[in-house]
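Hi F.,

I've been meaning to write this up properly since the lab meeting, where we talked about keeping a consistent format for the predictions we share between groups. The idea is simple: the sequence comes first, exactly as it goes in, then the structure tokens exactly as they come out, then a line or two of notes. No screenshots and no reformatting. I'm using this chain as the first example so we have something concrete to point to.
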Amino acid sequence: MIAPISPRNALTIARIVRVNHAGEFGAIRIYGAQIAVARRLYPDCVPMLSEMLGHEIEHCALFRAAMAARKSRPCRIMQFWSLGGWLLGFVTALFGRRGIWACTAAVEAAVHHHLDDQLHFLADKDPELHALILSIREEELAHLDHAEAQLSGEDPLAHALRAVISFATKVLIWLSTWGDSTRMAAALRKASAQAASR
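Output, unedited:
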């Protein structure tokens, strides 16, 4: 049972569920496109990509199931997540294994940052959603760790890809939450500063 909360916080929670659902759907499209390319060019990558895809499918279903109780609905810009995710997966896979793992690292790092903001916001407002995101974050961190391990060493191409992909992911998250992601990040910084000054 979700405790009564302000209309503004309820709207933010609905947007959190919406953007997380959209992001997981985008990740499904990324991994699907990468697997299609990797089957022909880098078959050694397919088992791990398939495992990650399975996680994203499960996460997407969990966020979809969480929508109704929070009066949320799928994102209005789902087509961008869908098409953008597929194109991103396809293009980065054409850059080779490092392109695949640079994409995973960039997306997962951006997502991890926003999940931390969400967890801070939700801690005293929606314990059920907080617990769900906390459990999902562990698998997302494992994806990030695996990708980082594949990218050891300096690589200007991988670095550039990560920067562009990270920026695009943050923009889509901002658009999907109508700026609530920025407000949550500001609240987290303020809370951290207050805790440090005590």
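Notes:
Helices lie at 7-41, 46-67, 78-94, 97-122, 127-150, 156-177, 180-197.
The CA atoms of residues 42 and 96 lie 8 Å apart.

If this format works for you, I'll send the rest the same way.

G.
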